Amino acid sequence: MMKALNIGATGMIAQERELHTISNNLSNVNTFAFKKDRNHFQDLLYHQTITPGTETSVATAVPVGLQQGYGVKHVATQKQFTQGTLSHTENELDLSIDGDGFFMVRMPNNQIAYTRDGAWSKDINGRIVTADGYPLEPQVVIPQNATKISIGERGVVQIFFDGVVEPDQIGNIQLAQFINPQGLNPVGKNLFTQSASSGNPAIADPGEQGNGLIGQGFIELSNVSLVEEMVGMISAQRAYEANSKSIRTSDSMLDTAVNLIRS
User: In terms of domains, do 160 and 233 share one?
Assistant: First the structure.
């Protein structure tokens, strides 16, 4: 069988996966704090007919080799943790991180998950929770009779009551950082979990040890660029068509060879 058929097939599979990634990015363009994905591709092993530097005589060697490639493979999908635009919402439980770091969330299985999504709410017990009801870690509970919530850029949570001038401090929001955030495991619901590749979390207050500052009344938007993704989609489509054409051309050449033998 002509090798170009298989080589073209690997190219079509690679571009199909590229389109899949672009589609996922575009579908999450309005997802709070969503981080876009980027694919990594590698060329496959080469058949070495002549290795570069092979001696042709006692005093001479070939300057270049003779190799034949076997196509491409998809090796990784990497999260891009560039910061998204901060949108002003005036909601006192909307929090953004201006810089590095992740909010911590306690999941139902008691595992700690990490997120950049700062669209928080209060549950029936007054706890600050995600849209799915997962509480912020460390836990912060807002009393029912509190009239105002103030969250400073350093993560200090204060509440005000009617008729009382001085606020009460009820908690402190901390952030986590990882030596390799691209190694975090995305589990959906805008959450990530620790993996062997991400390393252990370094937990500190906002503004300390490289952590960003918290902005109350702001929300981080997706870092997906519609223009870049649309250009990438066109490029993937054209590359897919080109690879399919190489398969059709190979098939045509095989057909010519078969007909030549028959004639």
Answer: no
Which residues lie below 8 Å from residue 169, measured CB to CB, with a gap of 6+?
156, 157, 158
**Longest CA span, the chain:** 102
State which residues form the domain around 155.
Answer: 86-220
Same domain, 200 and 77: no
- The per-residue pLDDT string of the chain (263 residues; one tens digit each, 9 = 90 and over) reads 578 889 999 999 999 999 999 999 999 999 999 999 999 999 998 888 888 888 888 888 888 888 889 999 999 999 999 999 999 998 999 999 999 999 999 999 999 999 999 999 999 999 999 999 999 999 999 999 999 999 999 999 999 999 888 999 999 999 999 999 999 999 999 999 999 999 999 999 999 999 999 999 999 999 999 999 999 999 999 999 999 999 888 888 888 877 876 65
Residues 114 and 155 in one domain: yes
